[in-house]
Specification:
The protein is α+β, with helices and mostly antiparallel strands and about 170 residues long. It is built from 5 helices and 7 strands; from the N terminus they run αβαββαββααββ. The radius of gyration is 17 Å and the shape is globular.
């Protein structure tokens, strides 16, 4: 980026708003905020959140990413249950853990999954696998993670699961 460039100025402003965020507390808040959606589904949550795990991010932006990923997972699991005509309970596993110098937040659903072609295109603007979707959720989420200095990886198997891992530099607790 070059000084005077609007994007550069926006990124400088973003950096000024980065704060040390406790990953476990942020995940719990996102689960609370998505509870009205989750409560309507036969879905269980399995959370394992490392206490004291700190990351330097824009809290609001990471919250937007996690809420999007959690709701996508819930909807994918609902679609799987409808396809299978099943009343069984599926599980969404959410982890926040340190891995060396990185802090990783992972969300693994047991939904419909994605084909290799869908997986390749899922971060492309306006690409969606949902009849009611507009195709911006993962695209915007990926951009927000990158703006905050992180990476987002996605793996998936059709009819089985999708795993999204978001990694940031780990911040030392003061």
């Amino acid at each position: 980026f070059q000084p005077g460039n609007r994007m550069h100025e926006d990124n400088v402003k973003l950096c000024e708003h980065l704060t040390g965020v406790r990953a476990a507390a942020l995940v719990r808040e996102c689960l609370y905020l998505t509870d009205p959606v989750a409560r309507q589904s036969p879905i269980r949550f399995d959370t394992r959140l490392e206490a004291g795990l700190l990351i330097r991010v824009s809290e609001g932006q990471l919250k937007q990413v996690l809420i999007n990923v959690i709701i996508n997972g819930i909807e994918a699991m609902e679609r799987r249950l409808k396809q299978e005509d099943s009343a069984r309970r599926l599980t969404m596993a959410i982890r926040a853990q340190g891995q060396g110098e990185r802090a990783v937040i992972s969300v693994r659903d047991e939904g419909v999954g994605m084909t290799p072609e869908e997986l390749e295109r899922c971060r492309t603007p306006y690409f969606t696998t949902k009849p009611e979707g507009i195709g911006l959720g993962l695209c915007v989420s990926n951009d927000l993670v990158r703006l905050n200095g992180g990476t987002m990886t996605i793996e998936s198997e059709p009819g089985a699961y999708t795993l999204i891992q978001i990694a940031f530099a780990r911040e030392e607790v003061q």
